[in-house]
Amino acid sequence: MPPPELAVRGRRVVTNNSVGPASIHVSGGRITAVADYDEVPPGCPVYDAGGRVVMAGLVDSHVHVNEPGRTHWEGFESATRAAAAGGVTTIVDMPLNSVPPTTTAEGLRRKLEAARGRCGVDVGFWGGVVPGNLEELPGLFDAGVVGFKCFLIHSGVEEFPHVTESELRPAMKGLARMGAPLIAHAELPGPVEEALAACCAAGADGADPRRYDTFLRSRPREAEDAAIALLVRLCRETGARTHVVHHSSADSLQLIERAKSEGLPFTAETCPHYLAFAAEDVPDGATEFKCCPPVRERENNERLWGALAEGVIDMVVSDHSPCPPEMKCRGEGDFLRAWGGISSLQLRLPVVWEHARRRGHTHAQLARWLAEAPAELTGFGGRKGRIAPGYDADLVVWDDEATFRVEPALLHHRHKLTPYEGQTLAGVVEATFLRGEKIYERGGPAGEPRGELLRRS
Predict the structure, then answer these.
(1) What is the CA radius of gyration of the chain?
(2) 259 near 232, Cβ under 8 Å?
(3) Per-residue burial over 344-378, b = 16 or more CB atoms within 10 Å of its CB, e = otherwise
(4) Environment class of residue 157 by beta-carbon count within 10 Å: exposed (0-12), middle (13-18) or buried (19+)?
(5) What's the DSSP call for residue 418?
(6) pLDDT of 456 over the 90 cut
(7) Which pTM does this prediction carry?
(8) What residues pair up with 404 in beta bridges, in sequence order?
(9) Which residues contact 334 (CB under 8 A, 6 or more apart)?
(10) How many CB atoms lie within 10 A of CB 190?
(11) Beta carbons within 8 Å of 443's beta carbon, 6+ residues apart
(12) Which string of b and e fits 51-82 if b means at least 16 CB within 10 Å?
């Protein structure tokens, strides 16, 4: 074994579901040993984290980078700077809202061309399932996408249409044969169309698009619940590994729990905004809070926390979905017209920690939700998401007691409009390492972009 080129040590290193003193030895970009705190070879450079928390670099499996085609929304350079500042060392890019979308081999080629040399962290890629691209899926998977995303309702962009049950079934059969996971935006259009029609017919107050309650009623829990039931049924029928993205409705948690207890390959994620915000607290006109599915009532959010603690929900990812500020219709405050997406790539760690610590959750749980489980979903679980020998030396060092106020000047993603602005959060990232190289230190990036474009393992 070659001698270590670096030792990162600390009194609170999160390994193997425990937290304690350790020295992490790094050589050739990989972890070669996790040794006792005092076990540092003579002459080896040391980064001493002291009493700060050392965790595996975070993995965010749900990021909309939007390049090429909508780089004015977000791009690889700005998105990966934000990721590194938030302790994230691997992101996986969604197949929309780029133009072209990643639904064909040519779309993937254009995506890789746009990303090459511009990434500050490692980047993997999802492919997309849309009507008519069934024959494209094997080629995309062979080219290295980690799996495939579909929408069961209008996606918000015309170039990525949603699929119906009759279109999804053969796709899932094909994905099962390939061993590729399906990730799904789980809302069905029927309940949404009915709810929206009812809202618009409810009179002046009930139809006021500035009221958050109007938007909330237009995206009812029933739309998610029916979509989850459909996905569970198709998962059972086809055997395809199925994952629900940005889960919001607590009313369908029992469906997910039953699918897991049945042994189906069925998982789910939620997002920081569903855990941190409550519908009751969203001001009228504050369209920066709009996302789909929506932030729901406080009792719903508490049930999501319970499901996360119990393992019914597997992970927390950002669903970073930025847009130019004018698309948020902030001036009019129109929730029905505004783009639905929240920018939070840089803030996932402190937002989740701020609320998790109040509920007595541990650093080990945090590492599972933010790093290990997303790595497993995307097929990178053998090299990302854990501090263990043989894994990439991707690390985040952070102060779990230090607090900061979210201000636009601190944010590295392209547009600064975020519902977290003005909040005080606990959890300050001190340093981020990618394969043993420091890529961020408190205050800004360290060195040139070193990110690699990842193929599925």
Answers:
(1) 21
(2) yes
(3) bbbbbbbbbbbbbbeeebebbbbbbbbbbbbbbbb
(4) middle
(5) -
(6) no
(7) 0.97
(8) 425
(9) 209, 210, 287
(10) 12
(11) none
(12) ebbbbbbbbbbbbbbbbbbbbebbbbbbbbbb
Task: Name the token pair of 347.
Answer: 């803030």
Question: In angstroms, rounded to a whole number, what is the distance separating the alpha carbons of residues 185 and 335?
Answer: 20
d(CA 103, CA 129): 7
Confidence of residue 16 (pLDDT cuts 50, 70, 90): confident
Query: What b/e string do you get for 271-296 counting C-beta neighbours within 10 Å, with b at 16 or more?
Result: bbbbbbbbbeebeebbbbbbbbbbbb
How sure is the predictor about 202, in pLDDT bands with cuts at 50, 70 and 90? low
| Alpha-carbon span 104 to 451, nearest angstrom | 24
Quick one: tokens of 420?
Answer: 């977290």
Taking residues 78-103, report their average pLDDT.
97
Q: If pLDDT is split at 50, 70 and 90, which confidence band does 205 have? A: low
- What's the average model confidence in pLDDT over 361-383? 98
Q: Band of the pLDDT at 93, cuts 50, 70, 90?
A: very high
Tally the residues of the chain.
Answer: 457
